[in-house]
Amino acid sequence: MGTRKKVHAFVRIKPTDDFAHEMIKFRDDNKSIDIHLKKDTRRGVVNNQQTDWSFKLDGVLHDASQDLVYETIAKHVVSQALDGYNGTIMCYGQTGAGKTYTMTGATENYKHRGILPRALQQVFRMIEERPTHAITVRVSYLEIYNETLFDLLSTLPYVGPTDTPMTIVENSQGVFIKGLSVHLTSQEEDAFSLLFEGETNRIIASHTMNKNSSRSHCIFTIYLEAHSRTLSDEKYITSKINLVDLAGSERLGKSGSEGRVLKEATYINKSLSFLEQAIIALGDQRRDHIPFRQCKLTHALKDSLGGNCNMVLVTNVYGEASQLEETLSSLRFASRMKLVTTEPAINEKYDAERMVKNLEKELALLKQELAIHDSLANRTLVTYDPMDEVQIAEINSQVRRYLEGTLDEIDIINLRQIQEVFNQFRVVLSQQEQEVESTLRRKYTLIDKNDFAAMSAVQKAGLMDADGHLVGEPDGQSFGLGIAPFSAKPGKKSKSKKAFKEPPSASSRKEGASSPGSVKDMETLSISKTQLVTYAKDGEVKDMLLRDREISSIEPLPSDSPKEDLRPPRPSTPPSKPVAFEEFKNERGSEINRIFKENKSILNERRRRASETIQRINAIKREIDVTKEALNFQKSLREKQGEYENKGLMIIDEEEFLLILKLKDLKKQYRSEYQDLRDLRAEIQYCQHLVDQCRHRLLTEFDIWYNESFIIPEDTQVALKPCGSIRPGMVPVNRIVSLGEDDQDRFSQLQQTVLPEGPDSVSFYNAKVKTEQKHSYLKTAVSLQSAHRK
């Protein structure tokens, strides 16, 4: 583990024209800040009110630029994260004091960007400077709003919303958020796009102290994983950087919050109070319990607060006299945070695949050393490789000759040979046991005493007493195994003995139970629509799942594709829909039509198999009824002829016993076939869902294609082409919506004015424009849909 170190705490004063110079003083070391308050004369002559405070922190940032703030606070933390140390940077303070500006900055201006985009930029710059390592970057964006967890990146198309609420989970690796999406970013521009996407989803509100007040706590996390490009290096390091933008504490009398904003302020103040309690407990060395679980904020930051992490706190305060009480409260929090210690350490892990390769290489070297040692010791040629089939067969022969007495001893060569000798002893013993058992089975009928169903049937048949002793006939030497002959019954003449045959095998029984019939009892049993079935009989079901994804992933051709530009001229009168539908299935809808036909053929095949299974079940049911009738007849015949008892147990003849076993086997077949029928019905239900989905998709795509090709005027389609992401099928025929100035033109103008001043800002502005284009498109699509409904 690493050495313990204290949390670094900085204070940043919000610039203002009304700075309280007489009340707030800075010392020359640029680390101390003094606060002076005038005594309240209304308290009388005897006034013990405290008027002076002094706070010593790690740095005071007054009238500091964003560049200086990042260099002072975050650059070292981000740099160490590339070496395997976790890092956390947290902004705390009163509402409107500049926390979000410090953390995120102003996205409209590249120079005013905050700690978060600068950290992303530094990470990718340092990756370029380390060509000896393969470093992957992933990001996530969490929001805690009114003690509820939200994923700010869930609006991305490949993530999608979920009904399962996110939860905070702890394990041996630490604390993580179950349900939070983590996104791989291979370049700087992608990371900025994710940042801007999350920023647009944050919840803000307006009150008297801040018109864009953050109403939630947000945690942007950068996950790093660095593997050495050297194959022999099996270690790799992981780290994460938590960038925390806390919602500001509010005094309701000053902010004037009402309604929903008042409720949000209550949750914010409550969570910040719990955070302060956790900080006080961490700073007290005598405390054993730290109340991390009082709220979602402290629970999510458990690893960062006093854990394996480089922790930095930025306290944002006002410089005005009217806000001096809140400034004092924030500075007290920073002082308490400086008492907290963390224990940062490098997060090293081992690559299992590389470890295996290194061990294989080491094993080969050790074998070479053993060969050299054997040759120097004048030992015969010894092999240390696993034995092949010929060597194993030779050892098996030696063991058999040793047991027969034809071989006096077995020569010992090495440890592997000794292990194989013992293994062959086990093999020979097992083979002898199987031979003895097969000999007994040929001569007698063996019943497993652990099979309670068979034992119960035998006892009911009178072949075994309650103590498990078999009832047989004396053979002159001992009490033999088998069935008492019918001649042994009192008052009956001797008859020829019937041979006691073994019951037929399971395979032969199953083959003989496939005759056709009809189902009666099966109709009352159905399968739940939500039942999950595991398909393991063939590989077709895997194809069905892939086909399901293929259906959902098929996208129609865009309206401005080259294929549409080369299509023949539009006829004067639209063709009939049946004729156009056949043309559509052969051209643009050929792929979805192919999948539709394949799914339908699979559905028909499953229905055929279900019909065959039903016929087999009915055949087995009829055979069960016949067997029951025969068994009842045998019982009635036995009752008429007289029953033979031995020690209170009923003795039955061989034919009745075989009928009992046959009935048991038929019931087993019945249950197996019925389970197969349930599985097939679930498969049929799933295939029917795929067929319906394909049919709906095919008809929908045909309607869009038919409108584009024959209904919508060509001039309307030409007007829509500059916005290629909006398909003509979504647009009403008599409406053309103007999208205003092209975003690409605005971006080109922006590049000409901004890039000469900041050459590194290309990724930043690219991501910004892409995010604006996406949200502009979404707004336009919503307006088009509302207009279409009207």
UniProtKB/TrEMBL annotation:
The keyword ATP-binding is annotated on this UniProt entry: yes
CDD domains assigned to the protein according to its UniProt record, in alphabetical order: KISc_KIF9_like
InterPro entries linked: KIF6/9_C (IPR056524), Kinesin-like_fam (IPR027640), Kinesin_motor_CS (IPR019821), Kinesin_motor_dom (IPR001752), Kinesin_motor_dom_sf (IPR036961), P-loop_NTPase (IPR027417)
Keyword set includes Nucleotide-binding: yes
Single GO BP term: microtubule-based movement
GO cellular component: microtubule
Subunit architecture: Interacts with HYDIN.
Protein name per the record: Kinesin-like protein
Native source species: Trichechus manatus latirostris (Florida manatee)
Gene this protein is translated from: KIF9
